[in-house]
Amino acid sequence: MFKTVIPFGPQHPVLPEPIHLKLTVEDERITEAIPSLGFVHRGLERLADLRDFHQMIQVVERVCGICSMIHAVCYCQGIEELMAVEVPPRAKFLRVIWSELHRIHSHLLWLGLFADSFGFESLFMQFWRIREKIMDINEATTGNRVIISVNVVGGVRRDLSHAQIKWVLSELQMIEQDIKRLENTMLSDYTIKKRTVGKGLLTAPQASELGAVGPTLRGSGVAQDIRQTGYAAYGELDFEPVVETDGDCYARCKVRFRETLASIDLILQAIANLPAGETRQKVKGRPEGETVTRVEQPRGELLYYIKANGNKNLERLRIRTPTFANIPALLTMLPGMWLSDVPVIVLSIDPCISCTER
Amino acid sequence: MLKNLIQKSRIKSPWLLHYDCSSCNGCDIEVLACLTPVYDIERFGIINVGNPKHADILLVTGTVNQRNKKVLVNLFDQMPHPKAVIAIGSCALSGGIFREAYNVVGGVDKVIPVDVYVPGCPAKPEAIIDGVVLGLEKLKTASLPARL
Lengths: 358, 148
Prior knowledge:
Mean pLDDT of chain A: 86
CATH topology of chain A: Cytochrome-c3 Hydrogenase, chain B
Distance between the termini of chain A: 40 Å
Mean pLDDT of chain B: 82
Structural class of chain B: alpha/beta
Structural class of chain A: alpha+beta
Low-confidence stretches of chain B: none
Radius of gyration of chain A: 20 Å
Number of strands of chain B: 7
Order of helices and strands of chain B: HEHEEEHEHEEH
Largest interface: A-B, 41 and 39 residues
CATH topology of chain B: Rossmann fold
Number of domains of chain A: 1
Oligomer: heterodimer
CATH architecture of chain A: Orthogonal Bundle
Radius of gyration of chain B: 15 Å
Distance between the termini of chain B: 12 Å
Number of helices of chain A: 12
């Protein structure tokens, strides 16, 4: 059989970000996929040499604009652990609220892009219409749409007023209704099932062995979510990881769809239990020692390794992001699939290249 | 007359090509947000295309780095004349927060000529739409090649 090599990316209509895959194809079947990365590499871990540990919050927020809040939470938790700072309970709950808002907007963004990847453009528009409401909440409560920059070492910079909470609750109710209205289309439409069921299979043992994380792992039936460890205020909220067992693109889609609804529920719980008090603890001194912190990003487990030596600059900052962990899983999903399924399968792991390459 | 017609229709429906240099996604999703119902620039005939040969306007987000420099120049060269380049976000303007990082070359204007600069980190969709409208001014005044 004659083999052809087809380049996929770095500039590709279906990908908002540049990733390059070298696909070896026999007829239209893929036999091998080799990724090549580096198009988004900036080298921001080394910026820790130039910026002090407070300024680094602004840098780590720009690892990825979609989940900037969650990166900042992870970094701040690490520094707070090193400096033994006790974060006020209200700040912990506010962090959960904004993190979950980011998760909802990230998942809605993904659901839209996923619909676009198999050509369902009106569904893409519908999801992005709902997403704009989340962006409005972000803008009204923090002053910025995407990179909200509310985290500081020792708490959060902004507070939610009573009137804002009331407005957020009414908006969330509308968002929930809007999402549920699309449930029937997203989860039982014939054309969507035709394009996603059975594509890009990943079994539970494979997923664990390859170190997949997040919805990619949970779509294969492994109930692992870093929020179960109860960081920030997750320990005080009622939370169950969303799991599907099929391990195909459709299962991963279902996981993300149900997670958006679960996130709305988490925000409602956090608002109902929001304690009164300070939102920020004054911080003095410099961090010393080393630590590893983990949080759950929309795409999976995010890990920060921080090493500090008592100077204002950190000695080493290492970030391990979920897409990096999911790429080996992607490479095992691709062989045997049709060339036309590649966009759907690549998107099904929700690749965030700017996270991966930093 | 044919020239006038082409000139007029080009301004009425410019097609966009978006390339993410090494942006943090903040500006990218704002570019995509422009296309979706709340801002909906498609009602003005503006369409996001994947092929540089179809595009009139190149939207660039993020800093240029050593690796994607070639890709950016390649995309720019493939676009037909007249074309406008719009740099979006602080990173595309000057390197932004990453200007001192080792793999960063700097702003987009170090590699290809830029017509409009849209500041912001990330730039808001309103600002991006405004930038595209400014970029159209260039297409309006650009001269066409002698042979069509």
